[in-house]
Design brief:
heterodimer; A: 549 residues; alpha/beta; MetI-like fold; D-Maltodextrin-Binding Protein, domain 2; 3 domains; five-stranded mixed beta sheet; three-stranded antiparallel beta sheet; 55% helix; elongated; B: 229 residues; mainly alpha; 9 helices
Chain lengths: 549, 229
């Protein structure tokens, strides 16, 4: 229960992150306000579209098939797919997200309005006509009031669904309460749990208040005598939920199957050592391309050396990965030295050593305290960079980040949502370079290049090893103040496994990592991100082309 | 020991469907493999969640059918479960049940309860009094009446509830990867910009929903041949 207490504290009390940014408290209120504003706009637009249409279809008694099946079809399209579809085809932004939510909200309202009108007693309609009402009057005075309870039922369903789905808005570059859920690295577990609680609360509150409106809107004449079912205490209900969850939790987790055998060739390469067969290693990774490729390279390399290897790639962000490795769910995963120092060991971004070797040493010491062994780092470094199109760079005449000082008031910077709060990102640019951009727009990390090519962003935060840089001819501004810390990747291994497999591990790692330079890593990322191969394929290609397999 | 250098390709002047982020049937055809495992994860999550949800809510409905006072509390509790967004539910469960399929299943099951419960109960309530009287006249006990007359006649509405639950669960299971349970959502999320990917993974979800919906409709026809007329 302590987790929940901490989470609730987070909602009410602002706190400071390592990077010195206040999150939680009133900042959460802002997110909640954004969340509800987005939901409200979408729901209102959906109502304004679906209710008149439903009334008309119901009044003339046509299009029933469409109106009724709209909600069936709507249900079958997952909200995540819908949002993704909009992002892929129309790009990010308030209008697009709103449109996606409106599409999601229309079917239940349309269906309910139609059904509501159709189920009005035909005798009442005939009576109205007999009294000399016109078509419009019949709709307004008879059909609409009698259909109102069902219409509100539809609005209720839609509104709750919209509030739930608005949680995904950060994927499309909008702020909402989904932010702390999707960007755990900034907000931490407490923030995520707090946001989840708040989203749940808002959904339930929406449901309850609209239910009350629905009851109040039911014309007295048709108000049915219902059992007094609403008055059950919700506290009891929530306790029941938690009990059910605890009971089900006893069912235990499932296991993954093992990765099979790699048949090492007899050539010079990674030597197979049968003694390793006794040792099983579960390799994990975070949830983006470079990490998955690294995970595959390590996993396949270790497999070739005879270890029994399982893969648990795509874990999530760094906090999730660290938890997984300290908790023993996985045995190893690649982490960047800069990330580790900043995000795990509380080093302020401007205090991170600029020398990669020193940064590694510091990170290694930090991991040691966690019972983890950090093996020697990769040659490549994958740090944040300020990127822009070559046309823009020419137009502004900038080569270094300091050069931006003359233009910052006119420039829009895009970055991942956590960028705003990180000293190796927007915050650092503001503090170290004293830049004050016209606007900062948070977008999903995958969109960092698209915003440049589409011209929406003047500047975007990209990574050194991004393959798109080379393809699109982006210019990376020189970090002349040395603000971005070194981000070499180091395989972090549980002590127990490291002790067991130490020397053999080191042998394989040094072999496997040797060729991972900036250019090669960029190429490997390109094969996944641009050529759309799987990380598994690309990992194998790397090992084979390097002559390691 | 030096290792061979990986081939680095210049992509700056490349024109291809994939490079242009189009909708590329060829790419989908060549890469369909990667969707297979997530697809089956998705099927597993959906089917198991709906099956467990059905068992629980069916039991609850039978319990509440003869004890009406139970209806209100059950509707309230399942109503709240239904309202809590599944994405939030996954994270609310994390501290209790940890990452993994179990967590995802709990949240998905919780979501189906209200839908199925309401439909089973409505189905039973809508059985014509005459049919029940006829059954009683034939000397059926309460229990026999339930299993031989009332439930068979309620099948269409019960299945309708399960169909709604199934299609909804297919959609919600796209978020299960947040709880570490895999599924097609993970594929969508992994490359949310790439049209071919989004369309394929999203399309598979819709397809799965349609197939389950149709399958359940066929089941309904098979177990209630009299309602076909």
């Amino acid at each position: 229960m302590k987790d929940f207490v901490d989470a609730i504290e987070f909602i009410f009390e602002a706190r400071e992150t390592n990077e010195g940014v206040r999150v939680g408290g009133s900042q959460f209120l802002e997110l909640a306000a954004d969340h509800m504003w987005l939901s409200l706009v979408a729901t209102v637009i959906a109502c304004a579209t679906a209710i008149p249409l439903g009334l008309w279809l119901g009044h003339v008694g046509r299009g029933g098939f469409v109106a009724i099946n709209a909600s069936n079809v709507g249900r079958a399209v997952p909200s995540l797919a819908l949002i993704a579809f909009f992002v892929a085809y129309l790009g990010v932004g308030f209008a697009n997200v709103t449109l996606a939510l409106v599409l999601l909200a229309i079917p239940p309202i349309l269906t309910n309005t139609y059904v509501g009108v159709r189920q009005v007693d035909r005798d009442s309609v005939d009576a109205a006509r007999g009294m000399g009402m016109t078509g419009a009057q019949t709709v307004r005075r008879v059909e609409l009031p009698l259909a109102l309870p069902l219409i509100f039922g539809g609005i209720r369903t839609s509104a709750v669904n919209v509030v739930a789905t608005a949680t995904l808005a950060p994927l499309a570059g909008l702020q909402s309460l989904g932010d702390p859920i999707i960007n755990v690295s900034t907000y931490g577990d407490d923030g995520r749990l707090g946001a989840a609680l708040l989203v749940a609360f808002l959904a339930v509150a929406t449901e309850l208040s609209l239910a009350a409106v629905q009851r109040a809107s039911t014309p007295k004449g048709i108000r049915r005598r219902r059992g007094r079912m609403k008055q059950v205490r919700y506290a009891t209900a929530l306790i029941a939920v938690l009990l059910a969850a605890l009971a089900l939790a006893a069912c235990g987790d499932d296991d993954d199957d093992d990765g099979g055998n790699g048949d090492g060739d007899a050539s010079a390469q990674i030597e197979r050592n049968e003694a390793n067969a006794d040792i099983s290693i579960t390799v994990g990774s975070k949830n983006f391309t470079e990490q998955k490729v690294l995970g595959e390279i390590y996993a396949q390399g270790l497999e070739a050396a005879g270890f029994r290897v399982d893969k648990e790639l795509n874990l999530g962000d760094e906090k999730t990965a660290l938890e997984a490795v300290t908790g023993g769910e996985i045995d190893a995963y690649p982490e960047y030295t800069g990330t580790a120092l900043l995000s795990f060991f509380g080093v302020k971004a401007n205090e991170i050593p600029k020398d990669p070797a020193v940064a590694y040493e510091d990170a290694r010491a930090g991991f040691e305290d966690e019972g983890l062994v950090a093996f020697p780092p990769t040659p490549f470094t994958s740090s944040n960079e300020v990127g822009l199109t070559s046309e823009k760079a020419e137009e502004l005449g900038v080569e270094t980040i300091s050069d931006l000082a003359e233009h910052d008031q006119d420039l829009t910077l895009y970055g991942s949502p956590e960028c705003r709060q990180r000293t190796d990102c927007l915050l650092g640019l503001e503090q170290v370079y004293e830049l004050d951009f016209r606007r900062f727009v948070p977008v999903a990390i995958d969109l960092r290049h698209e915003v440049l090519t589409s011209g929406r962003a003047d500047l975007s935060i990209v990574f050194t090893t991004d393959p798109q840089i080379q393809r699109e001819g982006f210019v990376l501004l020189e970090d002349d103040e040395g603000m971005f810390p070194p981000y070499n990747s180091t395989l972090v291994v549980r002590e127990e496994v490291a002790n067991e497999a130490g020397e053999e591990l080191e042998r394989v790692l040094s072999q496997v990592q040797e060729g991972l330079t900036d250019e090669v890593m960029q190429e490997l990322n390109a094969r996944v991100d641009l050529d759309k191969k799987t990380p598994e394929q690309v990992g194998r290609e790397y090992l084979e082309e390097s002559g390691l397999l | 020991m030096t290792i061979a250098q990986v081939q680095i390709r210049d992509r700056s002047s490349e024109e291809s469907c994939v490079a242009d982020n189009g909708f590329c049937p060829d790419w989908i055809w060549d890469n369909f493999d990667r969707y297979v495992d997530p697809f089956w994860d998705h099927v597993y999550l959906t089917v198991v969640a709906v099956a467990i949800g059905f068992l629980i809510s069916f039991g609850l409905a039978l319990l509440a059918y003869r004890r009406r006072w139970l209806v209100a509390p059950i509707v309230n509790v399942t109503g709240i479960l239904y309202t809590v967004p599944s994405l939030a539910a996954f994270f609310l469960l994390l501290p209790i049940t940890g990452r993994g399929t179990t967590t995802a299943l709990i949240a998905l099951v919780a979501y189906t309860l209200l839908i199925i419960f309401r439909n089973v109960l409505a189905g039973l309530d809508n059985v014509p009094e005459e049919a029940k009287d006829a059954g009683r006249g034939m000397g059926l006990t309460q229990r026999q009446l339930l299993w031989r007359v009332e439930l068979p006649l309620a099948v269409p509405e019960i299945v309708a509830g399960v169909r709604v639950a199934a299609t909804t669960t297919v959609g919600l299971a796209t978020l299960a990867f947040f709880a570490g349970a895999g599924g097609l959502g993970g594929e969508i999320f992994a490359d949310i910009n790439f049209k071919s990917n989004v369309v394929t993974a999203g399309g598979l979800c819709v397809l799965l929903a349609a197939v389950l919906d149709l399958g359940l409709l066929l089941v309904q026809r098979a177990v209630s041949p009299w309602s076909r007329a």
